[in-house]
Design a protein that fits this description.
This protein is of the alpha+beta class. 20% of the residues lie in helices and 25% in strands. One of its GO terms (biological process) is enzyme-directed rRNA pseudouridine synthesis.
């Protein structure tokens, strides 16, 4: 792993900030001062220190967030509140959201420093389901269940992979998809003549949004939860 990535992943600052620390000679690897951010380290065996303080290696950081509406799924933005802004104690970690929820969409969002985990969860080849609860501007007919199962064609002629639609009643549904196209759930319902008025992600893989995690709250994930995300 690159030295600057290791330091950012362990909360010593942004990539730009940790590069400055390295160039100033504040960082040692096995008691040797290293001034190149791109220096490769063996993160599990090398001893990395900042001003003499050893940095304990953590493989990765995984945070589960119940995202509120009005917040964007990004790491930085000059105009809008980001999901990273909600967790100031983790602001110096090199976190990124695993996929995105629209600004007005609520619910389950994971942030991590583990790029391979993100790839595994987001790749359509891995078949990790994402389930949403939605309120619509009216009822959908039972015929829509078959349309979703066969694959909805969006307004740009893209044909979605098969999706599972459950009609709960009173204009409320649950839908499970494996992709994450731009505004996909909203556009799928537009294709059957309905508008989504409220959207919340409630499940990723086999991981349910915890009942005790209020809107806007977040916490570190357990190993069991991390594994549940990757289960189909």
């Amino acid at each position: 792993m690159r030295l600057d990535k290791f330091l950012a992943n362990h909360g010593l600052g942004t990539r730009t900030e940790v590069k400055q620390l390295i160039k100033k000679g504040n960082i040692t690897v096995n008691d040797v001062i290293i001034k190149k951010p791109e220096h490769q380290i063996a993160e599990e065996s090398d001893v990395i220190a900042s001003d003499g303080d050893v940095i304990r290696y953590e493989k990765a950081l995984y945070i589960i967030l119940n995202k509120p509406a009005g917040v964007i799924s990004a790491t930085e933005d000059n105009m809008h509140t980001t999901v990273v802004d909600l967790m100031p104690e983790y602001s110096h970690f090199d976190l990124h959201p695993v996929g995105r929820l629209d600004k007005d969409t609520e619910g389950l969002l994971i942030l991590t420093t583990d790029g391979q985990f993100s790839h595994n969860v987001l790749s359509p080849k891995k078949h990790v389901n994402k389930t949403y609860f939605a309120r619509l501007d009216g009822e959908v007919t039972p015929a829509a269940i078959q349309q979703f199962k066969e694959g909805i064609t969006l307004d740009d002629d893209y044909k979605c992979k098969p999706a599972d639609l459950r009609i709960l009643g009173s204009g409320e549904i649950e839908v499970t998809i494996q992709e994450g196209k731009f505004h996909q759930v909203k556009r799928m319902f537009q294709a059957v003549g309905r508008t989504v008025v409220y959207l919340k992600r409630i499940r990723m893989g086999s991981l349910e949004l915890p009942d005790d995690l209020e809107t806007g709250q977040y916490r570190k994930m357990s190993e069991k939860e991390i594994n549940l995300v990757q289960q189909v």
